[in-house]
Write a structure and sequence with these properties.
about 200 residues, mainly alpha, 7 helices, extended
């Protein structure tokens, strides 16, 4: 009886040490992800590994898509393709907003890829976060577009006359990668324009 209790205590201590090791190793210069030396096999079942690979493939596809279309925008190829079916009244404005959106998509893709490999390595990956990982790049693209419009309209104290392509890409990437901060800034602007909502009087 006592031996069994001692074995259970030893097993519990080992689990606790392993949990501490995983927590302290993540993000360090030489992360071990809580593994012992030469412990190389995946802990995920085959079904999970297939889904993880599919997610990685889609996110890398988004990343490459943004790079390719940034290049097509820079060479004016994208404008030529769009002009086949639509008339572009202002070439500079069209390219500027393409830079905003595509660099926002680039930022969101990088953010999701970083989260994916961290979650997989730490053993905290799960299927319920899949929608979040896929939607983050799309949300980042939308936020970058709106932030670009705010800069274009000088609501963010920007100077539209100096927004060169590298500047537009930088604005789109930063606002896309830090989309939460960008949304918070929009909230401040909304309060300036529309004012704070008044609470209804209570009887």
């Amino acid at each position: 009886m006592n031996d069994k209790t001692g074995d259970e205590q030893t097993a519990s201590d080992q689990l606790n040490r392993r949990a501490v090791k995983e927590a302290t190793s993540f993000g360090s210069a030489e992360p071990t992800d809580g593994r012992e030396p030469y412990e190389w096999r995946s802990r995920y079942p085959e079904e999970a590994k297939k889904i993880i690979k599919m997610e990685a493939f889609i996110l890398v596809g988004m990343l490459l898509f943004s790079f390719i279309f940034l290049f097509l925008t820079w060479t004016s190829t994208l404008e030529s393709i769009v002009s086949i079916c639509c008339e572009i009244s202002n070439s500079t404005t069209f390219q500027k907003y393409c830079y905003f959106m595509l660099s926002g998509l680039l930022a969101g893709s990088i953010f999701s890829i970083k989260y994916l490999y961290h979650a997989v390595a730490r053993g905290i990956w799960h299927i319920d976060r899949q929608l979040w990982r896929f939607m983050s790049p799309i949300i980042s693209m939308g936020v970058a577009f709106v932030v670009g419009a705010l800069v274009h309209s000088n609501l963010l104290n920007g100077n539209d006359s100096v927004i060169a392509p590298p500047t537009a890409v930088s604005i789109g990437f930063v606002s896309g990668y830090f989309s939460d901060s960008a949304i918070a800034k929009m909230y401040e602007i909304a309060n300036v324009i529309f004012g704070h909502a008044k609470k209804p009087a209570q009887d």
